Amino acid sequence: MTKISKNIKRLRNSQNISQEALAERLFISRQAVSSWENDRTQPDIEMIGKLAEVFNVSIEELIYGEKRKIEIENEEPKQNNRLLIIIFSILGSAFVAIGLIFLIIFGWEYFGTVIKTVLGLLPMLTGQAVAIYTYKRKMYSIAFTESGALVWSVGVVSTLFLINGILGINISHFTLFALSTILILPAVYIFNSTSVLFGYFVLALTTPLNNINDFATITFLFISLFSGGLYVRLNKHKVENSRHNLSLWFLVISVFIGVIELLAGLNTNLFIMSFFAVLLAGFTFLFTFSKERDFKKPFYLLGSLGLLGTLIFLSVIDTIDSVDLVFTQYYFKDQNLMPNLFANLIILITIIDIGAFCSRHSLVKNPLKIAILLIGSISTILALICADTFVPFAIILTVLLSISFIVIGSKSNKLYEVNIGLISIIIIMFKIITEIGSNYLALGFAFLLSGIILFIVNFLLINKAKKEKALTQSINSELVEDGDLNV
């Protein structure tokens, strides 16, 4: 069937369909399409039928390059036999699975150690068999590769826990989860599996929970998250954009949870800092990587919502001390802790600076992004050194950040940015009104000030729109005079 590879490429090019677009329609990887066209592999019967539907040609034209009349004898009996085979396969698999479940559940106490060990190895052996079949026959299908990798990983982890319980080895939970995290890595690497990558991050975050203060668990957590991030970065061009973006979401959320675990579990001077300062620094760092301002990747959505949400929370609470997550008020009471404050400040600002350096190209022509970056940096510093008196600063910074988002959204017609800015200002206004209470004079002043701010923003936007319209009309007039524009 060497001819089919040329026909696939010919039909794809004639219909202006890219390899990636064809792969998405067939729910397979782009590498599979490339392998077909280079005659390294060939599509199976089911996939040939789907290709014929996509190209709107007959199967014989796809295979031979021309329409042929193929007589099929006894087609109906063959179709009936195929249907019976499928039915018997499903029923047979179901009966075998139910029988094994009943035998294991009700006969477990009658089995000896050898039989229990064999049964314990069964999930791993099954997973290996499915993985081998997928690797040899179904690597072109995303559905099969994801399923095969998942079955392999679940089988390995299940066998590890079963053998530990059957033989009474009493391996610690840290060791079990650490081994599980390491043992599923081949499935992630070989099959480029996004689902197993998610399981890898879950296991990596679960491993240190029972002993977060131990150096080995901290090291393991750091290495696991760093390795996962490195894999996502290097694997960018090996998978489709949708799966790469999903992997980025898993990575960012896992790193966030990992940092929270460290802050909650560690009790050393290095981490005696404002919990909210860490959040503000982290979300500012995340926001710097937003280039497209879309929601496919986590940087813009989590960065903007996290930065604004943290500031709003700090604006509406009566005092940060009540949250019981801040320790920085003790810095100024004990002068011996001043070096720690300085060290923590350097760490947080360095984190933000790294993000700004990595995304410096997107900052050159984006002054509003620079403004948001500055607001995040100032918020981080003030939340660290003025933890017990941060609420007034949080209110001011929230208003500034909200106005920045309103301006961004108004310039590019982004409802998300305009809405979160307006909602934030409304929340701050509600906070001020509830505190003013019956002081109507102060209440009137607050409304007056808010109205003036909104009028100023509106005036600037209208003025800018008029200038752009005038510039466009001027250019059109010049083109008409020169005869370059047909009216």
Summarize the structure.
The chain has helices at residues 2-14, 19-26, 30-37, 45-55, 59-64, 75-107, 113-137, 142-166, 173-183, 185-191, 194-206, 215-234, 241-265, 275-287, 298-316, 338-358, 367-385, 391-412, 415-436, 440-482.
Strands, helices and their partners?
Blueprint: H1 2-14, H2 19-26, H3 30-37, H4 45-55, H5 59-64, H6 75-107, H7 113-137, H8 142-166, H9 173-183, H10 185-191, H11 194-206, H12 215-234, H13 241-265, H14 275-287, H15 298-316, H16 338-358, H17 367-385, H18 391-412, H19 415-436, H20 440-482
Helix pairs in contact: 2-3, 7-8, 8-9, 8-10, 9-11, 11-12, 11-13, 12-13, 14-15, 14-16, 14-17, 15-18, 15-19, 16-17, 17-18, 18-19, 19-20
Give structural notes.
The protein is mostly helical and 487 residues long. It is 75% helix and 0% strand. It contains 20 helices and no strands. Helix 8 packs antiparallel against helix 9, helix 11 packs antiparallel against helix 12 and helix 15 runs parallel beside helix 19. The protein is flat. The relative contact order is 0.05. About 7% of the residues have low confidence.
Task: Please name the defining characteristics of this protein.
20 helices, mainly alpha, 487 residues
